[in-house]
């Protein structure tokens, strides 16, 4: 399936809950957000039905997100259901890692392909400041547990919100010590992220090269999205960057997103899309569901405009409500 600008859309990000056990300062308020009632969240059967229709349109890779997806009961069951769909090549998961140690065995058995762990610092005090929770030990235990399953690719996603340069150096060191790819993600001006300055790729590269030596760009891709990577001598993993602000990659965008309520979005920045939940619960056929999905994909915007003035159709929800 291609959109009207010729981009091949083969990647679906699915939020399975808006709930989270952390309260990251750039994502949500300290007291959390008004939660979606359980009955308004898609069931696993509904998610699987939508995904089955999407495989007919060329979706091959699915990422499960939240909120925090591991909060939702029996997440591994959904992984197994999606892996059984004809045409699905990869099912991956983005998590904060707090609940990973206790669930990794079930996720591995279900066939999960990759895990992205959101981790902005290895300093316990800074972690508590950023997340408003003291859970760093549990995240690190989750990483160690995941490393026991080499068939599952492991990545660290770091939003460089902690100012000290040593924080970037220490996070990057994980790629030296372990077969983990460490990716630095520029702060997106969505929700509370608008209150933070992003750190650009060139600045971070300069800091890391001072600490570890030359970073050599490589062409290989190690995931579903637009991340590009560098290798460093003696590192087991790679260093990656997702630089939506300084290295705009909209012309290569291959994804659509679905919220926990079943609203299909073609672009992170815009409110526009289609409510697939109401369509299904009104008794639509698979053909009608597929047609609605196809329309959203075809009308995918040409690009975001985060560096320009806001417009009326810009998304006003928080990242945890959209699906990070």
From TrEMBL:
Cofactor, how bound (note): Binds 2 [4Fe-4S] clusters. Binds 1 [4Fe-4S] cluster coordinated with 3 cysteines and an exchangeable S-adenosyl-L-methionine and 1 [4Fe-4S] cluster coordinated with 3 cysteines and the GTP-derived substrate.
Report residues binding [4Fe-4S] cluster 2.
250, 253, 267
All residue ranges annotated as the Radical SAM core domain in the record: 4-226
Q: Which residues bind S-adenosyl-L-methionine?
A: 26, 67, 118, 188
Q: Which InterPro entries match?
A: Aldolase_TIM (IPR013785), Elp3/MiaA/NifB-like_rSAM (IPR006638), MoaA (IPR013483), MoaA-like (IPR040064), MoaA_NifB_PqqE_Fe-S-bd_CS (IPR000385), MoaA_twitch (IPR010505), MoCo_biosynth_MoaA/MoaC (IPR050105), rSAM (IPR007197)
Please indicate if the UniProt record lists Zinc as a keyword: no
Q: State its cofactor.
A: [4Fe-4S] cluster
Listed EC numbers: 4.1.99.22
Annotated metabolic or biological route of this protein: Cofactor biosynthesis; molybdopterin biosynthesis
Q: Which family does it belong to?
A: Belongs to the radical SAM superfamily. MoaA family.
HAMAP family (alphabetical): MoaA_B (MF_01225_B)
* Protein name as it appears in the record: GTP 3',8-cyclase
């Amino acid at each position: 399936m291609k959109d009207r600008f010729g981009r091949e859309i083969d990647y679906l990000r699915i939020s399975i809950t808006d709930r989270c056990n952390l309260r990251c300062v750039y994502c949500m308020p300290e007291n959390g957000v008004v939660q979606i009632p359980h009955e308004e969240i898609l069931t696993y059967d509904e998610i699987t039905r939508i995904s089955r229709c999407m495989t007919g349109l060329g979706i091959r890779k699915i990422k499960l997100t939240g909120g925090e997806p591991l909060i939702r009961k029996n997440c591994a069951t959904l992984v197994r259901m999606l892996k059984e769909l004809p045409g699905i090549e990869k099912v991956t998961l983005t998590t904060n890692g707090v609940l990973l140690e206790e669930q990794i065995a079930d996720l591995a058995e279900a066939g999960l392909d990759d895990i992205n762990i959101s981790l902005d610092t290895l300093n316990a005090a800074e972690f508590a400041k950023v997340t408003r929770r003291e859970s760093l030990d549990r995240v690190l235990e989750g990483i160690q547990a995941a490393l026991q399953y080499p068939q599952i690719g492991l990545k660290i996603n770091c939003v460089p919100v902690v100012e000290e340069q040593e924080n970037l150096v220490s996070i990057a060191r994980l790629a030296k010590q372990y077969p983990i790819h460490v990716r630095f993600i520029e702060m997106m001006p969505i929700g509370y992220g608008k209150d933070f300055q992003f750190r650009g790729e060139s600045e971070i590269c300069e800091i890391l090269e001072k600490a570890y030596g030359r970073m050599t760009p490589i062409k290989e891709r190690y995931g579903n999205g637009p991340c590009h990577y560098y290798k460093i001598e003696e590192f087991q993993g790679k260093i990656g960057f997702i630089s939506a602000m300084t290295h705009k990659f909209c012309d290569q965008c291959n994804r659509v997103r679905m919220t926990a309520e079943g609203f299909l979005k073609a672009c992170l920045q815009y409110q526009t899309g289609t409510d697939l939940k109401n369509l299904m619960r009104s008794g639509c056929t698979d053909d009608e569901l597929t047609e609605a999905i196809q329309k959203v994909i075809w009308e995918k915007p040409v690009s975001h405009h985060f560096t320009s003035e806001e417009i009326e159709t810009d998304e006003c929800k928080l990242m945890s409500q959209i699906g990070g």
